Every structure is written in structure tokens, then in C-alpha cells.
User: What shape does this take?
Amino acid sequence: MAVRRKMGFSVNDLLLAEELKDAKILGGKEGLDRQIKGVTIIEAPDIVKFINGGEVLLTGLYAFRSCSVEEFQKYINELTKKSVSALIMKRGRKVENADIKIELLLEFANTHGIPVLEVPFEISFRDIMSRIMERLFNEEVTRLKYFKTTHDNFAALALSPDSGNRGADNILDVLAKLIHNPVAVFNQNLSCLAATEDAARVLTISEDARTFEPGIYSSYTYLRQEGEEPQCLIQVKMSFREKIYLVVTERNQALDVMDFIAAESAITALRFEFSRQYAVTELEKKFQNDIMHNILNGKIHSIGELQKNTTLLGVDINGSYRVIVFGMANESMTKGDFKAKVKDTNVLSQAIVHYIKDAKIQNDLDKIVVIQAVDKEQTQEEYRREIKKIVESVQEDVSMHNKHLKVKAGVGKVVDGIIHLPESFKEANEAFMFVDVAGELSEEGSPQAMLFSDLGIFKLLCQLEDPSMLLEYVPEGLQKLYNYKKPQRDDLIVTLKTYLDRNQNLSKTAQELYVHYKTAAYRIEKITKITGIDFDNANEVLAVRIGLVVYKMIENYNKDFI
Assistant: This one.
């Protein structure tokens, strides 16, 4: 059992330590005999609540950087209720009214006989903490005490109402001070979520990265990868995302057990912070989804309501926009796997946000609807290249998550004014449904993105409300081929498509299908016999080509229709 040393440990004793050889006594000299019972860092004003008494307080005053002089006085008044041993400070970071706050601190010190020491900025608070705790406890208890100390500090940061959107950054800043190394956090796609100023914001996990034991009990996976600057990666599984990586670059010193204890405490705070951010984001997303649903489906019944909704959505009511509908095909997915579908859609959403700046996004079960602001100076051809590049980039990101996913997108027309967005949304949906069919029109195969304006005559077919009416646009002879019940039907249909794509050249058709010339000739003869198609009649051939596309549309509308 660990016991406290019998001899007392005073502030005077602490001043003999190597770490404090350059320390200056600013005030409260009469309290140098005060006994030290603990140590903690003030990185958030609320840390006062966690003080038991007898601690040495360490601060750079950065926790009080933006509070007023009056608020600072209140914090000092709270300190008077705690019998602290000493306060060690260092300057270097910008703090509002720093001189006045230090003056108040010295007044507090001299009034209550509490020493205030100043150390050079480069001195590590972690080293001072370690020195104090080594004197107070044996190694095992020191670790436990250090864990509690860091846990209390990070808990105060995580629960601080003043953190705003910098919660994760504040946590990393404190951790970096404790372990004296740059720190960053990355998500499952290796995108940087937060980082200290001197930390790298790009992460590549080497194949040679090896797991290791940090010397403490941990439920996380620790990896180390060598390089010009060795890195320690801590892989953390989250409830709402695949995982995050806390990355420490060992630039200034190698990590030890005390550093890993601090990192574990920081991770607890980060998990709380990211959970909070996730909950807020999901609430905002739900709110945005509802607004977008009403706008896109024409459920806004007055100009006043439209103005209110566009203001909440953060878009210009008179701006120029277009709608894009994104989705994915995943042939490897088990039918009815709802959780996997939601997971895949979230990955798609994150990738879209990354490549389409300032986009307004509505998450559906299996689709992502995007309202994109339009550059009126951009030509149709320029935009066609842009959307192709965007979809290709999104596909690359999604493939890192699941190589079986295939991204596709349908694009509606440009409209002026939010009130006309339902028109663009309708076109985007129709273009989206036509993406898989588009390969029938091109020798290059199906594109990943389709603009409604590129559909040509097929735009008319998209307007049909009853998919069964599409069958009227299929020549009677081609319907006979699709209704041919014998096993050769599929081979005959593929042969017909290839024959037309190769300008009715039998040699090229045979080569494309990897069959003998006579086999190709036999199949075309069989097709002619079943359908009665006159391949010398250009109008009839065109009708057949259109009919093949229409059949593909029918399959997309209803797989069981044929």
C-alpha cells in the first residue's frame, strides 16, 4: 500500500527542484513554508470546483484570456475559499487585461500569504507536476493521482459552457502542453477534425505501423509508426462513426506512461465533445431536412413562409440554384440491411460535403439531395466537366469505405428563385433514374452523372406518369424478342444491342462478344426471324434502338414489369 512520505513537502522544498531553478517569487513570500498536498492545472475557470485544498496551481492565465476583470475577481474570490499552497504561472500567450489580472492575483497572494511564482514559458507544467507528485506518492499512486488530475482538467474543459465550437481544440491544446508534443484528431476517412497549431493536418497510416502496449490498461488500440518524426496513433471506436485517431507526433520527446495517462483522459473528453457535436449536427440536419423537403416538394404556401424557410436554411430567396440527386448501388449488400444502408449513405453525405462547398443537403434513406448555388457565368460544358469531376472524387472517397459501392448522380436545370426549385428537383430525380439507362445510348458505357438537359427526346418519356405506358414506345417486333421464353433470349438481346452499336458489322459484333462469326450471323438471323426487323430500314432501326432504351427504363421503374 502506498503511503505519504513522513517528512513534509513545502513550497520552499519545491523551489530546490531543477525545474524551478529559474523561478521568480512575485508575491506571498510569507507562505513559502506551506505544505503541498497536490497539484493541478488551471485550464478552465471551473477547475476551482475540483480543488480539495493544499494544491499547487499551475496556469498560463490562458483560461482567463477572454473574461472581464470583474469575472476574474470572482474566480479569485472562489480561490480564497480553497487553501491552496502556491500558484505557479508563466506568460507568453495573449490574455486580455493581463497586467491588471496579475496585479489582482498578487494582491490575493500577499493578502492570504500564498506564494505566486513565475517560471519561463518553455518550462513544461507536466515536468513540474511530475516532480511534485514524485515527492508525494510512490509510482503507482502518482499515476493514479495524475490520472485524476488530468481527468478533472479535461472534464472541466469538456463541460465548460464557454468552449463554443473550440471544444476539441481546447482539449488538444491542454494535452499538447502536458505531453509536450503536437497533437491532432482525424476521422475514419483520415480528415483532420482538430489539431494544435504545430501539428500536421494530413495523416497517412503506414503499412508498417505496429501495435504496442502503452504500459497502462486501455480499451483502445495503440499504433506506432516510424519516420522523420515518429507518431503514436490511438484508434478509438465511436458509437456514431467508425473510429477516430488521436495522433501524437513525438517531435520534442518520446512518450512515456504519464503521457499515455494524459492521452486517455483527453480521449474521454474528446468522446464527450464529439458526441455533443454529433447530437447538435444531427438536430440541425433534421431541421434542414424538413425545410428542404417542404421547399423541394412545393409545400410552401406563402411568400412569408418561403422567406422564413430560406432564411433558416441560409440561402438567398432570389438566388440561382440547381438540384443534384446522389445515390449509390451496392450489389454486395444483403437485401433489407437497413443499418448498412444508413451507414453507406452517411459516408456518401460526408464525401459530398467535402467536394461541394456551401451545399445544402437533405439526407434520405438511400439518396442525398443537394441544393447547389450556381455560377451564372459558367457554361453548360464547364459544369458538365465539374460535376463529372465531383462525382469521380466522391466515388474515390466512398470506395475507401466500401469498394462495392457505385456512386451516381442526376442533375436538374438551373432555376432563378428558390420557389422554382421543385422543377429542378423533379428533373434531377428523373435524370438520376436515367443514369443506368444512359449506357444504352453510348458506346462508352453508363456515366456516373446525368444532366436532365442531356436526355434529349427521352425527356418526353420521363414525363409519363404511368410507367406501363412506356411499352407503347417499344416496337412490336422487339416486344416479341423480350417475350421470347427460350434460354437464348438474353444472348439474343445482347447480340442485337452489340450489332447496332457496331453499325451492323458482323465481324466487329463477333469480336466484341468473343464468339465465332458464324455464331453471330446465326443469332442475327434468329433475331430477324423472331422480330421481323428490317435492318436496311433506317427508321425501323432507330425505333429499335429507342425501344431498347425504353425497356431499360421499364426495368428501372419496376424490375418485375417484364
